[in-house]
Amino acid sequence: MRSLLVSTLLALFVSVKGANFAFEDDQLTEADIGDFSDIAFGDATAVARAPRDDDEPDCREYPGSDDWPLDEDWSRLNRTLGGALIRGVPPAVVCYEGPAKDEAACTYLLRNTSSNRFYIDDPVTMFSEWPEGDTCHATLQPQDGENCTQGAFPAYVVNATTVKQIQIAVNFARNRNLRLVIKNTGHDFVGRSAGFGSLSVWTHYLKDFQYLPRYRVGEYRGRAARVGAGVESWEMFAYMNRWNITTLVAGGYTVGAFGGWMAGGGHSALASKYGLGADQPLSIQVVTADGRFVTADPTQNTDLFYALRGGGGSKQSYAFFLHSVV
Ligand SMILES: Cc1cc2nc3c(=O)[nH]c(=O)nc-3n(C[C@H](O)[C@H](O)[C@H](O)COP(=O)(O)OP(=O)(O)OC[C@H]3O[C@@H](n4cnc5c(N)ncnc54)[C@H](O)[C@@H]3O)c2cc1C
């Protein structure tokens, strides 16, 4: 059994219909964009700008910078997202002096932050404080001078449940020169799911799964599974048991089944027999940097398919895997 993922980047635009999960059929249209140019599609044929000199940093906007979106821009964005925009508030703000202080909420936090599940189910936090800079530490007794600041927690989060919302987020970030990050489970120790002043896309609730008894693409004929971007390894183990199949997933039960794990190679207990996770996808469905939703597989957008399975996980990447088939 191999992986079928779905995606494409900056290559041909292929409208993807028919073989998707329901959440993938809700896609951004020109009618949705109307006169809101901030969420307009990009130009996939545009030549990338040459890198600037080292002493000329190419900065993204950040809260307080001249062109940071106004509150009304964020409100309009939220309306186009159907209310899916969340402010990126550090959870432990409730432990510090200020309008949000809430001792009971802080106590709850201290009791629950020892569980992996807390970090996975929270839109902004990560497994480790390092990527955040430990700028808002949960404590009932802040020491002198200790306070809660934003650090690398994202400024806003899109709680994605449709492809359209991801397309809108990618387009808004690109058009307004914002830093874009992706949080799936928040396991990434290098901090890729965090970023100061960022707009984050949270893929946690893209949980769909489909067993495909007969699947064909390129030279492949056989069983496969279509897997949503938010599925975790433990959920895949349950599906393997139910359908009597084997797919490669991370040993850590709460690691995403096909997010940063696959983008970083994808090591597993079965690597010596079947190779790396990145070698498994049969097809990948992706929102690309220009906001299009496309398919990459052995027959279409093959350069992108190649890159997605070996390019590594980049902080600069704007390609979102929506689902995979393994
Ligand atoms: C407890 C634990 C156990 C682990 N076990 C293993 C293991 O057995 N084998 C192994 O190889 N690694 C393992 N890792 C490392 C793990 O694979 C990486 O930390 C990986 O980045 C986690 O990816 P994630 O999607 O779950 O988490 P996140 O931190 O949410 O995502 C990390 C990054 O991956 C990218 N990404 C995630 N989803 C998408 C998407 N849909 N589209 C595009 N990009 C995306 C983004 O850049 C994102 O910022 C483990 C880590 C931990 C903490």
Index terms:
single chain; 326 residues; alpha/beta; Uridine Diphospho-n-acetylenolpyruvylglucosamine Reductase, domain 3; 17% strand; disordered N terminus; binds flavin-adenine dinucleotide
What is the strand and helix layout of this fold?
Blueprint lengths: L1 E5 L15 H4 L4 H4 L37 H10 L4 E3 L15 H10 L3 H6 L34 E4 L3 H13 L3 E5 L14 E5 L6 E9 L2 E9 L4 H11 L16 H4 L7 H4 L9 E4 L5 E4 L5 H7 L11 E6 L1
Parallel strand pairs: 1-7, 3-5, 4-5
Antiparallel strand pairs: 1-10, 2-3, 6-7, 7-10, 8-9, 8-10
Flavin-adenine dinucleotide binds next to strand 4, helix 8 and strand 10.
Short description:
The protein is α/β, with parallel strands linked by helices and 326 residues long. It contains 10 helices and 10 strands.
Task: Please tell me about this protein's structure.
- The chain is 22% helix and 17% strand.
- Strand 6 and strand 7 (220-228) form a beta hairpin.
- With 326 residues, it is α/β, with parallel strands linked by helices.
- It contains ten helices and ten strands.
- It has helices at residues 22-25, 30-33, 71-80, 103-112, 116-121, 163-175, 233-243, 260-263, 271-274, 302-308, and strands at residues 2-6, 85-87, 156-159, 179-183, 198-202, 209-217, 220-228, 284-287, 293-296, 320-325.
- Strands 1, 6, 7, 8, 9 and 10 form a six-stranded mixed beta sheet that branches. Strands 2-3-5-4 form a four-stranded mixed beta sheet, covered by helices on one side.
- Flavin-adenine dinucleotide is lined by residues 127, 181-189, 192-193, 203, 229, 250-252, 255-256, 259-261, 263-264, 266-268, 313, 317, 319-321.
- Flavin-adenine dinucleotide binds next to strand 4, helix 8 and strand 10.
